[in-house]
Design goal:
CATH architecture of the largest domain: 2-Layer Sandwich
Protein name: D-alanine--D-alanine ligase
Shape: globular
Main location: cytoplasm
GO molecular function, one term: ATP binding
Distance between the termini: 10 Å
Keywords: ATP-binding, Cell shape, Cell wall biogenesis/degradation, Cytoplasm, Ligase, Magnesium, Manganese, Metal-binding, Nucleotide-binding, Peptidoglycan synthesis
Organism: Rhodoferax antarcticus ANT.BR
């Protein structure tokens, strides 16, 4: 289901939801809704935490723009429900979405495909976190502890001393029963949006992120103006192109389609890039990075929303 008629399709912008990123999702959805309506799209808001998804079919919606973030929106669950309803949706499909939100599974797949990602350990206790700290923490560098299936740095701790391991594990496991310890990579933090599918997918301009004290947390992502987003990124041309190529490989490794955004750290000493994660329903707020990169590529916010919507499809189209 790929044909899109701007004048006849009834579009639901899925926003809000039940995850810890509900507040951000509402902001993303509001921006998308306004942009689509400004272009004449018959778009309406739909909050799955307030209404049953079965109402989409009853109300005649033929296409969904997923502006949900995190669990029950970015993890394959909503995608699976829309497959059963036969309503085309934006972004990656069921399998890609469920794999990408799980940072442990993502790392396993990337490593199998020979793609670089920081060293890591899955831990199941505070004691195991302490052991991981001894293995992964570099001299003078922290270790990252985070839930395996959350986004927007929710539940993430930079552990700088062994005594912080128990608290970091408790915070992460409070959000997810799978916890990931990851070697910290010191250097440039960059993000790369990707649009399209398969051989037609293309990476947009790289954005370099300069956060206060190097702390790109939930608050600095969405609610402050002190973080700098550099696009053009200021990296050497060859380095930027190599990172874009890596993002495309990571995107296709997970069999993403439509759109997504890859997060990468570049080691300051070796200049080697390391993949951190892929977001399959990235933010679309005033602080969000995909619209910023798209603008640098000559794509307006409204045009970006329309392009993403036009690519909406199903994994299993009706015969």
């Amino acid at each position: 289901m790929s044909r899109f008629d701007i004048y006849s399709d009834k579009v639901a912008v899925l926003m809000g939801g039940q995850s810890g990123e509900r507040e951000v999702s509402l902001m993303s959805g509001a921006g998308v809704l306004q942009a689509l309506q400004s272009l004449g799209v018959n778009a309406h808001t739909f909050d799955p935490s307030q209404r049953d998804l079965s109402e989409l079919k009853k109300d005649g919606f033929t296409r969904c723009f997923i502006a949900l973030h995190g669990r029950f929106g970015e993890d394959g669950t909503v995608q699976g429900a829309l497959e059963l309803l036969g309503i085309a949706y934006t972004g990656p499909g069921v399998m890609a979405s469920s794999m990408a939100i799980d940072k442990i599974m993502t790392k396993r797949l990337w490593l199998a495909d020979g793609l670089p990602t920081p060293a890591w350990r899955k831990v199941t206790s505070a004691e195991a976190t302490l052991v991981a700290y001894a293995e992964l923490a570099q001299p003078g560098q922290p270790m990252i502890v985070k839930p395996a299936r959350e986004g927007s740095t929710l539940g993430l701790t930079k552990v700088t001393a062994a005594g912080q391991c128990a608290g970091a594990y408790a915070l992460a496991v409070g959000m997810d029963d799978e916890v990931l310890c990851e070697q910290f990579v010191s250097g440039d933090e960059v993000t790369i949006p990707v649009l399209g599918s398969g051989a037609l997918a293309r990476a947009l301009p790289v954005i370099r992120i300069v956060a206060p004290d190097g702390n790109y947390d939930y608050q600095n992502k969405y609610f402050t103006n002190t973080t700098q987003y550099l696009v053009p990124c200021g990296l050497p041309e060859g380095e930027e192109a190599a990172i874009q190529a890596l993002a495309l490989k990571a995107y296709n490794s997970l069999q993403c389609r439509g759109w997504a955004r890859a997060d990468v750290m570049i080691d300051a000493a070796s200049r080697k890039p390391y993949l951190l994660e892929i977001n399959t329903s990235p933010g679309m707020t005033s602080h969000s990075l995909v619209p910023m990169s798209a603008k640098a590529a000559g794509i307006s916010y409204a045009a970006l929303c329309l392009q993403i919507l036009q690519a909406a499809t199903l994994d299993y189209a009706a015969a």
